[in-house]
Amino acid sequence: MPRSHLLDVSPLRANPAYARMWSGQAIGGIGGQLTIVAVGLHIYELTRSTLAVALVGVIALGPTVLAGLYGGALADALDRRRLAILAASVAWASTGTIAVLAWLGAEQVGTLYVLTAITAAASTVLSATSAAITPRLLPRELLPAASALGGISSGIAITVGPAIAGVLVAAVGYAWTYSLDVVLFVAAFTGIVTLPALAPDPSASRPGLRSVTDGLRFLTRAPNIRMNFLVDIVAMVFGQPRVLFPALAALVLGGGPVTVGLLTASFAAGALLSGLFSGRLGEVRAHGRAIGFAVEAYGAAILGFGLVVAFSMLLGGNVGSHGEPASTLPLVLAGLLLAAAGAADNVSAVYRSTMLQAAVPDVYRGRLQGVFIVVVTGGPRIGDLYVGLTASLGLLWLPPVAGGVLILVLVALLVARSRSFRSYDSLAPQP
Where does the UniProt annotation locate this protein (predicted)? Predict the structure, then answer.
């Protein structure tokens, strides 16, 4: 019987432990977004500085990278259930401390920086460990569906969490918002605590610098996984126009903060919709080619978005006398193209995650998941720098147009040069 185009929920039926873990991650992810948004608003209220808000991510980047690399080594050397419980406990305690300080009125910018960095590092270890757990709970043929389910939970969290956070901060304040995250995190704990014991591979090395470097050396003899990371880096560095949204809303498309919200939501909505209609993705065996096509589609959508901006600027902008959009057409086109980019990115993520889980031996899986998180975390930040430097030339259309072209060209060249990536077969996965 042909599969439905709708989301395949077979993994949730196949293993109750996985279903509990996924549900906990979905609910806990919404809480995590509450705190991320609330901390940004909180720091801006305390400092009135956009730079101070930007430093939240900058300060957390170092601990996140270290946690991804070393946390992955821990996930390969220790019982993954116990490590997940430990990482979740640290993240929960850090968020709880933020909530307590907010209730006492004792919060300070420096304290928020430190606690947010601790939460980010612990969450990175938890994410790497949870991703390494999934292949131990599900058969290989259900991994694409599990990756799609992971995209759904992330999409819901990113879409719902920030919206709820803005309403809660305005209505009841920061303390209640942080406290709700603490409560929602109980669901994540429940999903982890009820997992079976997940002892490490007997051949696993002890965690440490040697274990980390051994995991990195594995990439030198894993051309498919290496290409997996490379095409994602290209897409994230050259195809992240998000820092342009405020300037575009003020100077080109009109609408101010409302337009910024619409553009941001468009990308998330595209990813979420593609996840809801991902049921047939599991039928594709050529995951390498599928990743290449999806990233090329992503680059084309970003290029199209840049062309919409360029034509709007060529026609004198789309900003009315009071800052409102003079026409809805450019804004609609921009939103549709960003939705297409979000959908393509989600399809790419499904196959990249599946390849990583299926092709990497279990003894290396935690470390490679850690590297994957470092790539996913660091790529967009480098992309923000690329966009900022390019946009400083005064041409707001240049970053997405040039970035889209670079993605199309570079990804085509990379995939063309890797025969093993093009011939990758999900029924016989090779790293």
Answer: Cell inner membrane
Q: What is the pTM of this model?
A: 0.78
- Compute the distance between CA of residue 422 and CA of residue 407 in angstroms, rounded to an integer: 17
- In terms of C-beta density within 10 A (0-12 exposed, 13-18 middle, 19 or more buried), how is residue 133 classed? buried
CATH number of 218-431: 1.20.1250.20
Q: Which CATH entry fits the domain spanning 1-207: 1.20.1250.20, 2.60.120.10, 1.10.287.130, 3.10.20.580? A: 1.20.1250.20
Instruction: Provide the greatest CA pair distance for the chain.
Output: 69
Q: What is the pLDDT of residues 214-267, one digit of tens each?
A: 888 888 889 999 999 999 999 998 998 877 777 787 788 877 767 776 787 788
- pLDDT digits 0-9 by tens, 136-180: 999 988 888 888 888 888 878 877 887 788 788 888 889 999 999
